[in-house]
Amino acid sequence: MLRPYGPKIAILAIVAALVGLVWVANTATTGSDAASQSLPDEVDRLIPVSGGTILRQATVGIDVADGYTANLTIDGVTISDPIEFAEGTGKLVRDGLVINAETGVITYTPRPDGLVERFETGRNCVAANVWKVNAEPTSGRNVTWCFSAA
């Protein structure tokens, strides 16, 4: 004999499973807009967070774990040398990265006549090559994230 509630329970279970699948798909960490949520061990944080919004002249960078360093490729422009100012004058000699070896924070700030003058309005992406300080950059791991500039 059929139970009167059997089909109703089966339909509810199917609906609950479908709702669960939709929820998982919508909250999954995927792509460069969600990179800040699934960082490799070599990286402590991304600046700005992936998927965030910054001003067009804001600083971007990466905070690497102890014993690591990195270079940045910002919207296709690779920046690997440290910034350099003329001693005593403060005049910019070479545009580049600000590297704080004590904290592991490596940043770049766009500037007029710089390698990157400003971020374009809308989506921008950064790729960081992260490697051990005593190793070759070619041994590094790439971390890519994107953000919006307003």
Q: Report the C-alpha radius of gyration, rounded.
A: 23 Å
Number of helices: 1
Q: Summarize the biggest pleated sheet.
A: 5 strands, mixed
CATH topology: Immunoglobulin-like
**Low-pLDDT stretches:** 19-31
Level-1 CATH class name: Mainly Beta
Element-level helix/strand string: HEEEEEEEEEEE
Whole-number total of structural domains = 1
| Second rung of CATH, namely the architecture | Sandwich
Roughly how much helix do the residues carry, as a percent range?
A: 10-25%
Give the termini distance in whole angstroms: 66 Å
Strand fraction:
35-45%
Secondary structure: number of strands: 11
Q: So what's the overall shape?
A: elongated
What does it look like?
It is a single chain. This protein is an alpha+beta fold. The protein has one domain (33-149): Immunoglobulin-like (Sandwich). It is 15% helix and 36% strand. The chain contains one helix and eleven strands. It has one helix at 6-27, and strands spanning 43-47, 53-54, 60-64, 68-74, 77-79, 84-85, 92-94, 98-100, 105-108, 122-132, 141-149. The strands form three sheets. Strands 2-11-10-4-5 form a five-stranded mixed beta sheet, with no helix packed on it. A hairpin with an 8-residue loop joins strand 10 (122-132) and strand 11. The chain is elongated and about 90 Å long. 21% of the residues are buried. Residues 19-31 have low confidence and may be disordered.
